[in-house]
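Reading group handout, session on sequence-to-structure problems. Before we discuss, look at one worked example. The prompt was deliberately terse, the way you'd type it at a terminal:

> structure Actin-related protein

The input record follows.
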Amino acid sequence: MAGTLLRKVWESVSNQQRPSPPKAHDGRTSLGAFDEIPSDVMMQILKVVGPKEAAKMSTLSKWWRSLVSDDELWIFFIQNHNHQNHHYSNSWEWDSLLFAETHLRSAYPLHTFTSQPPPHLSFMRIYSQRMQVPGSIIIDGGSGYCKFGWSKYSCPSARSATFLEFGNIESPMHSRLRQFFATIYSRMQVKAASQPVVVSIPILHYDDTESAKASRRQLKDAIYTTLFDMNVPAVCAINQATLALYAARRTSGIVVNIGFQVTSIVPILHGKVMRKVGVEVVGLGALKLTGFLRELMQQNNIIFESLYTVRTLKENLCYVAYDYEAELLKDTQASFEAVGEGWFTLSKERFQTGEILFQPRMAGVRAMGLHQAVALCMDHCDAAELTNDGAWFKTVVLSGGTACLPGVAGRLEKELHGLLPPSMSTGITVIPPPYGVDTAWFGAKLISNLSTFPGPWCMTKKQFRQKSRVSRPW
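And the output record:
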């Protein structure tokens, strides 16, 4: 039955010379026997026919156009395409796609987060536009490790140590940037001129002083200049914290990025970093935690050959205790086999390492605990009264490899509720890194696969030159 219907439908679509069909009683174009088929049955037929043929059928009549343009049909096609396309994985969720198309289509200003898409969205048009998006190269240049890859794939293609000090704006910057980007393009075996690029930039020069603004502009201009000199057609440079927030399907909140050297607490409202409110910085990062675990292992006569082994043990055995004092009374022994060095067994070292995020003095570090820095940032956000809704900063998104340690989110949420007054602590939610160590990369992936990409998100070489001429002092 379905096969016969499909053949008849296809014949009616492909027959360009047939006379115009008569009108039905309700005024719409009559398609004979098809008029007797319930709409829900026709929708099932259209799903079998597929998006290309379904789109062609919209030319038959107004009724068919109305039927074919139904959002549920094209949502089905989008979801089915993502499931079948081997470039996508299960982690590429429909919710993320819906969030991106609802809130990120026009770049700035961004829409606030709601659970429902705006009524003007046409998923038929979105499907068509997404099929034409060129995709991009994504380069997440973290302070410790760089993740890079093709935006159409399910995860980064490769990772490498970042051999570039992003905060250094001295004269050799351009040559070092060129070496950095050229190495990535070489490893990916693609030409720089073949597609746009999305580059994530670590949060740096944290304050809102004129010198800090100038340094940020210099770095961004250096990135644009270098990539355009390499003939990249369009560039989007955006900071890691904002990308992590997008990956969590939010446009406003506080991002806690536990980086290689330091931890940044970044307030973001509608996609824009609120530097006037204040970006808090804690002198604790992944390197400090690895060094502290090394000290604990040495104190307990656990022999190892390299710092890489210590880092591997940290990533695979360590966690943050919800209640530190209670954890001291438990049997927490666990083992892990490090490649080339055999088995290691850790006990209290497992949660003592992560504890320095909340009690830095344990490692001899003079700094605020993570919860204290986030609470201070929230206090500043509350005092700034930037919106009528004081809840925008109550969503905390974690990012960075060390933030992936089990227990960080739960412990931070608990400490914030204990530290802040009820008026501020009510409604606080701490979200673990949505995509683990690749969270910022996935935020860039959301942008790169938007139906409007590269459009509003990217700058072309011509636009960059025009902007440079306008801002150049004479």
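Points for discussion. First: The chain has three domains: 35-81+91-104+119-132, 137-248+438-471, 263-268+280-431. Second: The radius of gyration is 27 Å.
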